[in-house]
Amino acid sequence: MHPVYLLEDNPNHRKDIQAILEDYILFHDDQFYLANTSSVPKNILALIQDKPRQTGLYFLDIEIKGEASGLELADQIKHFDPSGRIVFITSHPSYAPLTLAHYLEPLAYIPKQDSERLRQEIFTCFNLFYQRLYPDHTSSNQSNLYIKSGPKTYQLALADICSIQTTRTPHIIEFSTLTQSIQSYAALKDFEDLEDFFKLSRSILVNLNQIDQVDSRKRQVKLFNGQSLSFARNRRVDLQTSWTSHKETKK
């Protein structure tokens, strides 16, 4: 598993960001664990020195007590954990060029903003970190998806997935197959590039191989697992074209 660290000197911000990290890790506890949150760079550095080269994920505020201490810590992280990935979270965009000057190659640079947007950006960083380390498990072109739901990880064949859609619970999406439905913490946009999947609306992806019927008048598709899903009016022509073309290529 990969350790996650947070450096933030504002207690309220640290509490909010920690909650976001814990929300993600709750559903990915076989991949990550929260190793430390602190307002003091040396506290994090001491832990890294004790366990070097652990390929951690580091969320750092650049400015700590009026100084660019986050950058200094990032330099030291790269020394002890060269494979680790750094994400800068800051309310000072002017510091961004300094990350280039230090050759830190951060995974992302996230401005402090509304909590919902911040949550989405942090979740994306987690996914990107894992995708780059384990491309065989996360590639959009592979034949399987590995979905974490609670304490279990499910291996789903792409061919068996009928639809992927958002739920009423924020950041929870549902994978519906021919035989089951599984919910997981994720973002729909992370799956939009899957081969053979079509975006019916902002909240639904459908497997073109699993479409049984398209009712353009009612703006609905019927899938082989019995699902009936609505599609956006502006997707009508693209859906019909994509589905027809897809059927022809599969002959």
TrEMBL record:
One Gene Ontology molecular-function label: DNA binding
SMART domains (alphabetical): LytTR (SM00850), REC (SM00448)
Key words of the record: Activator, Cytoplasm, Phosphoprotein, Two-component regulatory system
Source species: Aerococcus sanguinicola
Domain of life, source organism: Bacteria
Record-annotated Response regulatory domain positions: 3-127
Modified residues (4-aspartylphosphate): D61
Protein name: Response regulator transcription factor
Residue span, HTH LytTR-type domain: 145-245
Functional note: Required for high-level post-exponential phase expression of a series of secreted proteins.
